[in-house]
Amino acid sequence: MKTVLVYFTLLGLFSAVQITVNKKNEFSFDPDITRNVSDLILSKGYPVENHVVRTKDGYLLSVQRIPHGKGGEKIPNKQAVFIQHGLLSSSSDWVINFPEQSLGFILADAGYDVWLGNCRGNTYSRRHVKYTPDMEVFWDYSFDQLAEYDFPAMIDYVLKETGEEQLFYIGHSQGTTGAFAMLSESLEYNKKIKLFVALAPVTTVGHITSAVKYLAPFTTEIEFLFEILGVKDFAPSDALMKYFSEYVCDTEAKFLCEYVMYLVFGADLQQLNTTRLGVYTAHTPAGSSVKSIVHYAQLVLSKKFTKFDYRKNNVIHYNQTTPPEYDVSKITAPVALLWALGDTLADPDDVVVLQSKLKSLVSSYCVPLPSFNHNDFVQALDANRLVYDEVMRLLKEFE
């Protein structure tokens, strides 16, 4: 959900505003704009392994592993940590800033075996054993399928590769939504999670104050529009985003990109590294399905944490007229919530609703900065001090 408006707003700005930006010279160009996630990791001096995980329904997911930090081999007795990105994002979220500011690098330097997941349909997971991205069936999924197939497959793969029985799971935004759904339905996975750290946790979204909420009432119309256009994937073209990354967000015209960030995530420019805007927009949005966007819009309207609403076809899919609700009270794995007062997507009121239902809640931490927003959990200048220090404390406590 976090970048739904980014695409449309950038398109609007592109057509409405004539911007003349001189081509930047080679010395001002940030090479991280054109690097993929593996190159980002290598460029900061860290080792990386690329793995491919096959889901039961045939998707081939890309997973990056940072086996240890710059200092050498993995520290004994430090467990595997699996980190999952949010909607329209990718594993680059965790290595997008400099080492002391990026959770993936911080964990690796602390001796953890770090695994970075990628959901089906994003930049790094656009393969299937039978289907191709130009087929509509490839995009027939929402977070229901991530919870049923993607997350279990990646967790099982990491446990098999490491020989461990449990791992630490850290998710952001949709990375928490899918995990809450998985742990509510596939109860056996509760025993595989030593601790679930939920950054900007999202289940119900009935209280969001982001501009995204204004799209929700038009869910049916938006879905119909994409249907008649034959569009199932929600992924801006690489060419468009690369243009904005290099010639708008990484130039004196970056105020336009700052405006987009403000519109979607709220006002917290003090935590936004504006010198990295070009890098951020080059890597996000990373793609997803239209169905995923529609699913979240449905939740805004229903104010419930349910499976996808097929309306008149619910009986076919669920043998009932309404979509089933996920029951998070069934979760037994320890859960730690990290949330923010300035988060307009994972609204504090929705976090309160979630807290009241969780029976295995071990910690609820409010970021001590009122303006801290949804995207700050992965990009903020002081995320290490405001969020990641608490994450590290929790992991140490549950080792």
TrEMBL record:
Q: One Pfam annotation, family name?
A: Abhydro_lipase
The UniProt entry annotates the active site at 173 (nucleophile), 343 (charge relay system), 374 (charge relay system)
Tell me which Gene3D superfamilies the record gives: alpha/beta hydrolase
Q: Which UniProt keywords apply?
A: Glycoprotein, Hydrolase, Lipid degradation, Lipid metabolism, Signal
In Gene Ontology terms, what is one molecular function of this protein?
hydrolase activity, acting on ester bonds
Is Lipid metabolism set as a keyword in this record? yes
Q: List the signal peptide residues.
A: 1-19
Query: What is one GO biological process annotated to this record?
Result: lipid catabolic process
Keyword Signal found: yes
What positions does the domain Partial AB-hydrolase lipase occupy? 37-97
Q: Extract the SUPFAM superfamilies matched here.
A: alpha/beta-Hydrolases (SSF53474)
InterPro entries in the cross-refs: AB_hydrolase_fold, AB_hydrolase_lipase, Lipase_euk
Q: State the similarity comment.
A: Belongs to the AB hydrolase superfamily. Lipase family.
State the name under which the record lists this protein.
Answer: Lipase
Which organism is this entry from? Oedothorax gibbosus
